Amino acid sequence: MSASPFQIEEFPFPIQAIQTDRGREFFAYSFQEKLMEYAIKFRPVRPASPHLNGRVERSQRTDLDEFYRNANLKSPDLSQRLEEWQDHYNQYAFTDSLNGRTPWEAWSERLSVTPFHDEVEAAYNPLRGEDSSSARPD
Q: Which of 6, 60, 121, 137 has its CA 20 to 30 A from that of 40?
C-alpha cells in the first residue's frame, strides 16, 4: 500500500472506519485489501456530496491556503517541508472547531481514553501470547 491516500502505521490508535469521496484510489484492490486486512470499515460518500465530507474538505482547503500556495512542488525537500508544516500546524494552530485548542492539545486530552493497537488486538485476540500465528501481521 505504498501509494495509499493514508498510512495506517502513522496512526497511534486503531482505525475503525474511513469515509472517503469516490476517488478511484479508494476502490483500488490494494487499498481495499489493506482495509480488509486491518478490519477497517469503508464508507464512501454519495456522489456529488462534498458537504458529507466537510472535515476533509476543510482540511484540504487549509493545506492549500497555508502550505501548497507557497510551496515549490518541484523542490527536492518538499516532503521535509510538508512534514515540518504538519508538525507546526498540529502543535501551534488554534482552531475554532477544537474550541480554540491545537490538534495536539485535543489529541492529548483523549489520550487516556484512546485504546491503542496492542490493547485492541489483545482484546480481539485473547490467545495472542499463546498463538502468535493468528495475530495480524505488522
A: 60
Check: pTM over 0.90? Answer yes or no. no
Side-chain half-sphere of 6: how many Cα atoms within 13 Å?
Answer: 15
The Cα 42–Cα 114 span in angstroms is 21
What is the distance between the alpha carbons of residues 23 and 56, in angstroms, rounded to a whole number?
Answer: 13
Is the CB of residue 94 less than 8 Å from the CB of residue 102? yes
pLDDT for 6: 58
The CA distances from residue 17 to 3, 25, 63, 84, 135, in Å, are: 19, 16, 23, 28, 20
Please give, one letter per residue, the 3-state secondary structure of the chain: CCCCCCCHHHCCCCCCEEEECCCHHHHCHHHHHHHHHCCCEEEECCCCCHHHHHHHHHHHHHHHHHHHCCCCCCCCCHHHHHHHHHHHHHHHCCEHHHCCECHHHHHHHHHHHCCCHHHHHHHHCCCCCCCHHHCCCC
Q: Is 51 exposed, middle or buried (0-12, 13-18, 19+ CB in 10 A)?
A: exposed
> Would you tell me how many other CB atoms lie within 10 Å of the CB of residue 76?
7
